[in-house]
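Dear colleague,

Thank you for sharing your sequence with our group. We've completed the structure prediction you requested, and as agreed, I am returning the results in plain text so they can be pasted directly into your records. Please verify that the sequence below matches your submission; if there's any discrepancy, let me know and we will rerun it promptly.
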Amino acid sequence: MISLTLLLAIYPYHLNATKYYLSPGGNDNTGNGTIYSPYFSLNKVFSVVSAGDTVYLRGGIYELTTATYIYQKSGTIGNRINIWAYPNELPIITRATHYQKSEVDTTAEYYGLFFRGCNYIHFRGLEITGFSQGTADPAAGLGFYDGSHNIFENLNIHHNGGGLVVSAWFGAECTDNLILNCDLHHNQDPLSPWAYGNADGLSISYSLAGSTTTVKGCRFWYNSDDGLDCFSNNGLVNIDSCWSWKNGYDFLTDETCNGDGNGFKLGNTNGSTGDTIKRVVRNCISYKNKQNGFDQNQAYCPIEVYNCIAYQNGYYGFSFYTPSYAHIIKNNISYHNETAIGYISSISTLSNNSFYIDPSTNITLIPNPAYTLTNTDFSSLDSTQLDDTRESEGCLPNITFLHLSSASDLIDAGVYVGLPYYGSAPDIGAFEYNGYTNQPPVIFNQNFQLNENSPNGTVIGTVIVTDPDTNQILTYSILSGNTNNAFAINASTGALTVNNSAALNFEVTSTFTLTIKVQDNGSPALSSQATITVNLLNVNESPVAYDQTFNVYEASANGTVVGYVGAVDPDAGQSLNWVIQSGNTSNAFSINSTTGALSVNNSSALNYLINPVFNLIVRVTEVNGNNLFDDASLTINVLQGINQAPVILNQSFSINENSANGTLVGNVVASDPDAGQTLTYSIVSGNTGS
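Please find the predicted structure tokens below.
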């Protein structure tokens, strides 16, 4: 059987949040933070960012000339501030040749990024490198101080004076932080007073009692001090599925240096924490570190270690030498560590490990005779796999190093500790062997992002699936949520693509929640399902102006409203501007620039006989976007709606006296502005003697 538990991080999507963009070619002075006019620095964008906003860093190299220092800028619960790599791009943050200290806090001088007092921040997909020591002062790629509820995901921090520092150094709370799928390596501090003794891959330090930190899926290697260091930490630290190797080495020479060189240094604490568990380590590998694989280091608290492996470390595999704490150590392997297996206090609970406590010393660990541990117990001892490229979405690479071989007597030899397993019982070691009947594929809930209106065929991403059974053929399909057939999935590869571009309208549907099924070809064929969320990114679109026909009576008074020129902008919150471009003979009309109301401007120009039809072009432009526009064609018919009086001019005629009746005196001239009228004439007065 298999018992499977997945830890999933949920990233809420906020419809009303603002997106800001940074670019190596951006400008903090002339840019406005849009994708078309990006900023350059985090210093700039954090002067305008708010809770719920997302900052996208476009790919390329950011050569910083000024230290990045962010102080007390936070998101809120459910509304983090996201600092994310733009999808499918890699931003690399490094230091320029000419580099200026922070004017606010000189502590940040040798840090790539320095945050203090910031909560609910989510970093994802950044590479930080080149921030080495300039003096004996501490340096690091990312220093995050006195901040809580933060996520550090898929960060690659290397070749700095230190890796990632998450610390309550200044005395404020530092809790509920998640370090997920990060690579922290090749960091060293040769200028420190104790040369090479302060550059850890990950330092979780000075945390207060009651705090919690979770480290999952991370790798630490070639750091001159320790891989992971819990220095002066009185909080709970959960360490899950992490690999640590070759720490305590100078990566330039591959020789050991003055740093401690522990794979996982679990202490110290500031005094005793009593009987409360403060460290939990699961499914971790510690290989060929200068000193110890797993080191208690004056962590005065009980520690739980489950299904871990210490292999070829310089001193001990497991060094838990403080005798007064009852640790729980189960399903672990210690193999070929140079000095000894290690030490663990006799009051600890040990079960189903490759070692046990020597009853003659009550602290020294010796091989467990219940198991025969040799090289043949492992599928591979090729350690070069450890720094293989991560899987998509940042998961650890799929390796065979230190996996159990089919002949190992450590298979099904463990005890249940709440972790997933195959077979009749858990295995001993960090990886479960699966050589049993067909197991279903494992598909993870995933999130993708995509610009609205992306063309058909655009690749969104590949659905991540693993199958415990080798050589299986997997088939992918979309079961539900695919409104208007917006997407298609490659049945063989799991690649998700755009199928109906017209369905990708942010203003109509901002999020698609797809149910994806994957089925193997085992016997019997088994399948699994997961939720794949596709969040559309709002792209600035042109307004839409409508062609219209209006009627107006001739001689209508100035100010008479003829009609409203209709226009909409697909992007919420945009303001529009209306302007008459052409066709406005004699300025007959005017248009309100903010409402689109078309009015009579020159009444005398509205003459049916002279100009019965006006053909106007009205341009509608967005005001607070990128000056995109659309033109509307307007037809305005001038109507003879009001009968106008005929026009008769004063006239003079002459006639001889005594002329006979019927003699023509003259023709009275009159006209009518309205075509087709019949005029009737009569004498009203002055006809003396008739």
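Summary note from our side: The first strand starts at residue 19 and ends at 22.

Kind regards,
the structure core
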